From TrEMBL:
Domain Riboflavin kinase: 184-306
Biological processes per GO annotation: FAD biosynthetic process; FMN biosynthetic process; riboflavin biosynthetic process
Name assigned to this protein: Riboflavin biosynthesis protein
Cited Gene3D superfamilies: HUPs, Riboflavin kinase-like
């Protein structure tokens, strides 16, 4: 999938263009529905399906005091998820205060002028955008008839009677309700992070762990979790401890996700790995001795392996 950083770069596209517009934090089932409209329409007329998204998350610029500290998927993770849905290109529009003051119509005209053969824009039917929230589906349809593109408005996708939203998913993850998060995401809840060097004590414990520093992701509650690790595209069973390791560290220790990957002994430092959260096993605990901790970890590992 091609990634552009400027709407002007869309000029180089030489086929009919079908766009989905939005932030798409987490690329949940509601977002997937909107994106599917663009992907299917592009397939039908031999065109290209693209997503135009905004970075950073607009709420961080418009109302930083209300902005979630954590987002669901960093831009790299979002790009990977979109590629899996069959999106041909992603345009990441930098979201600044200046950009937020642009009239909705001006932004749409910009897209229409730069996308050459813009055929179609897909959004959710309640999507609002542009200066003073001046853009909505009704207006978008009107502009589409003037500028010669079609508008597809997806009805809200609901789970358990409520509209799926990234705010709801964040809350479910914070509550440790991984199955609800999974249902709304339409995939396993995943933390993507880079492996950093730890104190290497875990190696002495007999359970080498990769310290995964999350790329700006909402994390579930501390504790021991059954995981699946994805490393260079290969899938492994794994177990993880999320927390501050009270047995061996003081309370000021950094919150970390330590992952012990089963049947793996390669070097993971500096690698980006994906940890799929499958099941909560137990809360993190302060043990009286490292030996007690070691014994408990053996039991945790055995319960996940079996
Ligand atoms: C499956 C598993 C469970 C763990 N559970 C706890 C725990 O309950 N309490 C705790 O203090 N540390 C726990 N740890 C963290 C160990 O203390 C940690 O792996 C060790 O401190 C290694 O740190 P290092 O990566 O800096 O070498 C657990 C680790 C693993 C892999
Ligand atoms: N549950 C849903 N069902 C259908 N479409 C949705 C749903 N949630 C969001 N969309 C649409 O997906 C696109 C991207 O949404 P965007 O992330 O910009 O905003 P949002 O509606 O605030 O999403 P969220 O509340 O999940 O953060 C928009 O066109 C939006 O209307």
């Amino acid at each position: 999938m091609k990634v552009f950083h400027h709407i002007g770069e869309l000029r180089q596209l030489e086929k009919p263009v079908h766009l989905a517009l939005g932030v798409f934090d987490g690329v949940h089932v509601g977002h997937q529905e909107v994106i599917r409209h663009a992907v299917e329409a592009a397939k039908k007329d031999g065109g290209l399906a693209g997503v135009v998204t905004f970075e950073p998350h607009p709420i961080r610029v418009l109302a930083p005091e209300r902005a979630p500290r954590r987002i669901l998927a960093s831009i790299q993770h979002k790009a990977d998820l979109l590629a899996e849905l069959g999106v041909d290109f992603l345009c990441v529009q930098e979201f600044t205060l200046d950009f937020s003051r642009r009239e909705a119509r001006e932004f749409i005209e910009d897209l229409a002028q730069n996308s050459g053969q813009l055929r179609h824009i897909a959004v959710g039917e309640d999507w609002i955008f542009g200066k003073e929230r001046g853009g909505n589906v009704q207006r978008l349809k009107q502009w589409g008839s003037e500028l010669d593109f079609e508008v597809d408005a997806a009805p809200p996708v609901m789970v358990q009677g409520e509209r799926v939203s990234s705010t709801r998913i964040r809350q479910a993850i914070r509550d440790g309700n991984i199955s609800a998060a999974k249902e709304m995401l339409g995939r396993d809840y995943t933390v993507v992070g880079t492996v950093e060097k730890g104190k290497q004590l875990a190696r002495q414990l007999g359970f080498p762990t990769a310290n995964v520093v999350a790329h700006n992701e909402q994390l579930p509650p501390d504790g021991v979790w059954e995981l699946e690790a994805v490393i260079d595209g290969a899938h492994f069973k794994a177990i993880g401890n999320l927390g501050r390791r009270p047995t061996v560290e003081n309370e000021n220790a950094r919150r970390l996700l330590e992952v012990h990957v089963f049947d793996f002994n390669g070097d993971l430092y500096d690698k980006v790995i994906e940890a799929k959260f499958l099941k909560f096993i137990r809360p993190e605990k302060k043990f009286d001795s490292v030996d007690d901790l070691k014994m408990q970890i053996s039991k945790d590992v055995a319960s996940v392996r079996s």
